[in-house]
Design a protein that fits this description.
1279 residues, alpha/beta, Rossmann fold, Topoisomerase I, domain 2, 27-stranded mixed beta sheet, 49 strands, 23% helix, disordered N terminus, TIR_dom, repeat
């Protein structure tokens, strides 16, 4: 070896063939391992198998974690080789130390192997101290001393090894059960495991990502923008193929879960070149974030929509390959377009674009390091196999030639793969010995030169004409041009010259440019002698000079400016005898009549064809595809019946097309697209005899009135789309279309009935009839054996449903807003594969099937069925139902069989004003997560829902009357068996409740309850047990006008809203403890744009424990911050809102400024009230560390203002208070100590009027706001 660095290869986990690892030092960098299990559990079975370990195993499995637990292994005195391998092939080991752990030699040997794997492979080890003290494990005292003593006689030589493993493991960071609840401990462990897995799994399982993690770590460590709540723009720039997109996508994936909406727009440069390209990108951006389509008329319209709809949303946007400033201006024009915390990532080759647009951060992507380049090259050149030592020098040369360029490494590695001749390797590399900084095209073309001649032709067709097109379209166009197309595409994919993304053929820019260069080199000075023409200037030159030749095989002319019109001389075609593909998009006209096109022409794609009829020369004998979208043809011509090879005819969006000739039906036509031909009134009879037709698209032919009543021979037809044909009244007999799989009549608003023959289409999979507002009936007899999706929503005149017994494979049935439907056929109740059934707003529906046996059903929606009074019995096998919506129905009672829905999570009964109670079997809904009863004003007896033992009518005899299985005999249900561990939301707003004592029962059986909504009720007090809801985040008590006091709340509470509780005289006494607590659910907070904690109380005043109180709407304090101090800022204001009517409303904002810059702003609406509001907002400085200067004095200004009012609203009394906690962190103590920092009170200004201000403030503006006080630190109060 002359220059190769062997240590780099060793660090990759490989040793050269023929060499040995003996005596080799282990590399400091962790190799890449593939593991069989995510987690290995080491535990003492008799201590924890049936409790803690079993529960932990179950929770991990529920989260999709692959866990090994040794139930299936036969135990002996010695650990088996199988178990050793299992430990070695696990990513994480969780060691559960319990009282008898050390008494098992098996456990101790496991532990030794685990610690060895940690040392040698970097395995993650998580110790758990279950009912034992960590110091006893560390020092082998207590149970662990006794356990080891038992082994001294037989295993003396192992004792020191076991002791060392115990000590080492006990010193690791882990969990001590102590007095904690096991459930909470398990949640923490699962969260940590998932965090490790998320950071360990590849960012994209379909790509070899090398060198990405270090770049992301650099961005996260240095660019603090990702931790701030400001709107930030990051520009990633660099040369083509260097990895900009790969890095941006990995960063996007890592951050995506933190945002309200995300959008990834690929290939912005190419997409914006298309007609109306930027407005389409605007529309796509809005759809990806808002999840629904918005009309975008033009660029200015789109800009306004983006600004208005996204200005309050925290979103993540990635724009890939931007090359013009106008693209940025149209899509991400300014920081004020988006809500706080928004992050925008842009990739481009042009750094100046980022500078001009005012990007916050810019990052240049560099090539891979030597270590990373070798790793990437090895993966492709040796397919991850061990390279022989003979190849190491050559491999180093190859990576040196590529200079860390990822694409070049992949292409070159793939090219050299499977070439076993060293001389061949050397010969290939010798030619580029001095090309370190040479154009990378020389390296890329190596793969091209090794291709078969016809595969080269396929590559050049794709690179010059078809990048970004759908895979199916590319294959259709090229299949008649290349006999080995499938082989060629596979070969190109194997060599990484093309790739498929989202069903489109993609190619890296450098490879595409290489293809362009190859064609250009065919004739430097005469474009007419090149095989492919795609540049406008070259095409115009060839047609102007009539300089074409037999060399020309394909032409692609795209005019990006829709207003531009060019004229060409068609005589130039006469010299292009070998032209196979003609692609034109734009306003291209010919100065003469077109009389000739080459006979060998196979594919014509001419969008916006500007002639009223099709010239006869377009009818060539070899023509396979004729794509004339957006044409100006009025009468589609004759002669296509002679095109024996024509398979595709596309006239979509030809809006002035009125007639298609009978002689235009090519006999072998397979695809016919006529959608949006809005003036087309009928189709020729000859089209009805196209026996090979597979796809017929007529959607949005709004003037199409009928299909000819002739015999239809569509034996091959699979897809028929007649949606939005609003004048279509009848459908002829299509029984011959026996292979039809998809049929759509959506929004055929004149359609009264569909032909009975449709009922006999046995292979039909999808049938869409939504918005057929005049459709009255379906075929009486149906044989839809393969039907999976049937949409009949908004068929408002549909009165009955036929027998669906034959549709045994139906999965989705929608009957939403079928307002004439009164009865649902009993057969619907027996569809065993039905997944979703939607009957929302069927306002006249009175009866459902009496018995539901829908064992696959997951979603049942009956919302708004206001005449439905009874709910059917439930079969015992209906355990898949997850969502049940019965809101705004007239249902009076539910059957006891509702208890069979053991997987039900969301149960919506809002506005069920006839419902008085739930059945006594409701307590069997163990998976219940949300129960909505708001507006069910007659509802009574809440307690027995959670504890059936207190329900006097829930006796065993009563249950027996329902003829249910023994599962329901619960007249004496043990309280310890009652558990609603998934229950998170209880909505009882407006239920006319006068007593909420049922909460005392609920706190013992619903430990996960996080939201309790009790607004608009009549109770006067809350039970003292509220503090026992250890997961409670949100408590809503709005307009509980008789409520007099709120008891102490759990420390985890995040939000209390007592707006309108005018009788409130006592608030929780432990608000100070709550704010001091570190129990903050950040996952819950990510969905809330407000502060970390918020309390709206009435008649409460300012709590005495606030350090600063002032009769003003603004205050300034100063404090010193360092890394060992955690700051919590609590602000509170009291005021009253007056108005001239009951609709008076004030929008009040709380503004927090740090260093003269707005850091946070919280807003809330407050209705008119004679009582006084107290609004308390608490926010942690954990979110604001980037705003705080470490080890320096920081100015904090808190300022309240009325931002907007529904009427003239005055805020009578202003008080603002600020409080800060400092938490000292002691490494040697687990106790947390809080200190209340004091300052001398001071008044800031005397003006109590709330006025609007712009941000950030200058020092002078701040002085004006605060009156005589200045920003001089010597004059500020410090704490």
């Amino acid at each position: 070896m002359k220059t190769i660095d062997k240590e780099i290869w060793k660090s990759l986990g490989r040793f050269p063939m023929g060499s040995t690892a003996a005596g080799a030092e282990s590399s400091s960098s962790s190799p890449i391992f593939n593991w069989s299990y995510d987690v290995f559990l080491s535990f003492r079975g008799e201590d924890t198998r049936s409790n803690f370990t079993g529960h932990l195993y179950m929770f991990l499995r529920q989260k999709g974690v692959n866990v090994f637990i040794d139930d299936g292994l036969e135990r002996g005195e010695q650990i088996s080789e199988t178990l050793f391998k299992t430990i070695q092939n696990s990513l994480i080991s969780i060691v559960i130390f319990s009282e008898n752990y050390a008494s098992s030699t098996w456990c101790l040997d496991e532990l030794v192997e685990i610690m060895e794997c940690k040392k040698s492979k970097g395995q993650k080890v998580l110790p758990i101290f279950y009912k034992v003290d960590p110091s006893d494990v560390r020092k082998q005292n207590g149970w662990f001393r006794e356990g080891l003593a038992k082994h001294e006689a037989n295993f003396m030589e192992k004792i020191p090894i076991w002791r060392d493993a115990l000590t080492t493991a006990a010193n690791l960071s882990g969990w001590h059960l102590g007095a904690r609840k096991e459930a909470h401990l398990i949640q923490d462990i699962v969260k940590e495991v998932l965090s490790i897995l998320n950071h360990t799994k590849p960012l994209n399982a379909n790509e070899h990502l090398v060198g990405i993690d270090s770049k992301i770590e650099f961005l996260y460590r240095k660019e603090e923008m990702y931790k701030s709540e400001c709107v930030n723009m990051l520009g990633i720039y660099g040369i083509g193929g260097i990895g900009k997109t790969t890095l941006a996508k990995a960063l996007y994936d890592k951050m995506a879960s933190q945002f309200e909406g995300c959008c990834y727009l690929r290939d912005v440069r190419e997409a914006s070149k298309l007609f109306d390209g930027l407005t389409q990108l605007q529309k796509k951006l809005l759809f990806q974030i808002l999840k629904y389509d918005l009309e975008v008329v033009d660029l200015d319209w789109g800009i306004n929509i983006i600004k208005n709809r996204l200005r309050s949303k925290k979103v993540l946007i990635l724009l890939d390959d931007v090359d013009k400033l106008e693209q940025l201006q149209a899509l991400v024009g300014g920081h004020d377009w988006f809500g706080q915390g928004t992050k925008i990532i842009v990739t481009t080759r042009n750094k100046q674009l980022l500078v001009s647009h005012g990007f916050d951060k810019m990052y240049e992507v560099q090539g891979l390091s030597k270590h990373e380049a070798i790793e990437l090259f090895r993966r492709h050149a040796f397919k991850n196999l061990q390279p022989s030592s003979n190849y190491l020098d050559l491999s180093e040369r190859a990576t040196r030639y590529c200079t860390g360029h990822p694409l070049a490494l992949i292409v070159l590695g793939s090219f050299l793969c499977d070439r076993s001749d060293l001389a061949e390797w050397s010969g290939i590399l010798d030619g580029f010995e001095n090309s370190l900084r040479k154009d990378i095209k020389d390296i890329l073309q190596l793969s091209f030169d090794g291709l078969e001649d016809e595969v080269k032709e396929i590559f050049l067709d794709i690179s010059c004409l078809l990048v970004g097109k759908r895979v199916s379209y590319v294959k259709k166009m090229l299949s008649e041009c290349h006999s080995i197309l499938d082989f060629g595409i596979t070969k190109l994919k194997d060599l990484s010259l093309i790739r498929f993304e989202d069903d489109r053929v993609q190619m890296h820019d450098l490879i595409k440019q290489m293809g362009h260069k190859i064609v250009h080199d065919e004739s430097h000075d005469q474009p007419g002698k090149r095989s492919r023409l795609w540049l406008e200037k070259d095409i115009l030159e060839v047609f102007s000079n009539n300089s074409g030749s037999d060399a020309v095989k394909a032409i692609k002319l795209v005019l990006t400016d829709p207003k531009r019109v060019i004229d060409l001389d068609p005589e130039a075609f006469r010299s292009m005898k070998n032209l196979r593909i003609l692609m034109v998009d734009g306003n291209v006209r010919f100065c003469k009549k077109i009389k000739y096109l080459p006979n060998g022409l196979k594919w014509i794609k001419w969008h916006r064809f500007a002639h009223p009829s099709l010239p006869s020369c377009f009818i060539t004998k070899d023509l396979v595809g004729l794509d004339l979208q957006h044409s100006f043809i009025t009468n589609f011509g004759k002669g296509l019946q002679n095109c024996m090879r024509l398979k595709l005819l596309d006239l979509r969006h030809s809006v002035i097309l009125k007639k298609i000739s009978e002689s235009s039906a090519a006999p072998n036509l397979e695809e016919l697209y006529l959608s949006n031909c809005s003036n087309l009134k009928t189709i020729p009879k000859s089209f009805l005899s196209l026996r090979k037709l597979v796809t017929l698209d007529l959607h949005h032919c709004v003037n199409l009135k009928k299909i000819p009543r002739s015999y239809i021979s569509w034996e091959a037809l699979e897809d028929l789309d007649l949606s939005h044909c609003k004048k279509l009244e009848k459908i002829p007999d299509i029984s011959s279309a026996s292979n039809l799989r998809s049929l759509s009549f959506e929004q055929c608003t004149n359609l009264v009935m569909i032909h009975d023959s449709i009922g006999s289409l046995t292979k039909l999979v999808t049938l869409k009839l939504q918005n057929c507002s005049n459709l009255k009936k379906l075929p009486r007899y149906i044989s839809w054996n393969f039907l999976q999706d049937l949409n009949l929503s908004w068929c408002k005149k549909l009165e009955e449903i036929p027998d669906f017994s034959s549709t045994s494979n139906l999965k989705h049935l929608s009957l939403e807003q079928c307002t004439s439907l009164r009865v649902v056929h009993d057969s619907i109740g027996s569809l065993s594969k039905l997944v979703s059934l939607n009957l929302e707003k069927c306002s006249n529906l009175e009866k459902l099937p009496s018995y539901l046996k829908l064992k696959s059903l997951q979603n049942l929606t009956l919302s708004g069925c206001c005449k439905l009074e009874t709910f059917p019995e439930i079969d015992e096998n209906m355990k898949s139902l997850y969502i049940l919506r019965l809101d705004s129905t007239a249902i009076r009672e539910l059957p006891p069989s509702i208890g069979y829905l053991t997987h039900l999570y969301m149960f919506d009964l809002k506005g069920c004003t006839n419902l008085i109670s739930l059945p006594c079997t409701t307590h069997l809904l163990k998976s219940l997560g949300e129960l909505h009863l708001s507006g069910s004003s007659r509802f009574e007896m809440f307690s027995y829902i959670w504890d059936p033992t207190i329900n006097p009518v829930c006796s065993s005899s009563k249950i027996m009357e329902t003829s249910l299985t023994s599962e329901f005999f619960h007249s004496r249900v043990p309280k310890e068996s009652l558990c609603f561990k998934h229950f998170t939301l209880l909505d009882l707003e407006g239920c006319n409740i006068s007593n909420v004592d049922f909460l005392e029962i609920l706190c013992n059986v619903a430990s996960s309850l996080s939201s309790i909504l009790l607004s608009e009720n009549n109770f006067s007090s809350l039970p003292s047990c509220l503090h026992k809801f250890m997961s409670l985040r949100n408590l809503e008590l709005r307009n509980c006008k008789f409520l007099q006091e709120i008891p102490n709340l759990p420390l985890c509470i995040q939000r209390v809203d007592a707006t309108g509780c005018v009788s409130l005289s006592r608030s929780p006494n432990n608000i100070l403890d709550i704010i001091s607590s570190q129990q903050i659910n950040f996952a819950w907070l990510r969905n809330r744009p407000r502060g970390i904690r918020e309390f709206v109380l009435m008649n409460n005043g300012i709590p005495e424990w606030f350090s600063y109180q002032i009769a003003s709407n603004a205050i300034m304090v100063t404090f010193q911050h360092n890394r060992d101090t955690k700051i919590t800022l609590a602000t509170s204001v009291t005021f009253r809102v007056d108005g001239d009517s009951d609709q008076g409303m004030a929008l009040v904002s709380c503004n927090i400024l740090i260093g003269c810059r707005l850091d946070r702003r919280y807003m809330r609406k407050f209705p008119k009230s004679a009582s006084e509001y107290t609004w308390l907002v608490e926010t942690s400085a954990t979110y604001r560390r980037s705003s705080l200067e470490m080890n320096d004095w920081n100015d904090v200004i808190v300022w309240f203002e009325a931002v907007k009012c529904a009427e003239v609203v005055t805020i009578r009394r202003y008080r603002d208070v600020v409080k800060s906690f400092a938490q000292e962190l002691y490494a040697q103590s687990a106790d947390h100590k809080y200190g209340l920092l004091h300052a001398t009170n001071f008044i800031i200004g005397t003006n109590s009027e709330m006025q609007g201000h712009s941000y950030p403030f200058s020092n002078r503006q701040m002085e004006d706001l605060l009156g005589e006080k200045t920003l001089s630190k010597s004059k500020k109060d410090k704490f």
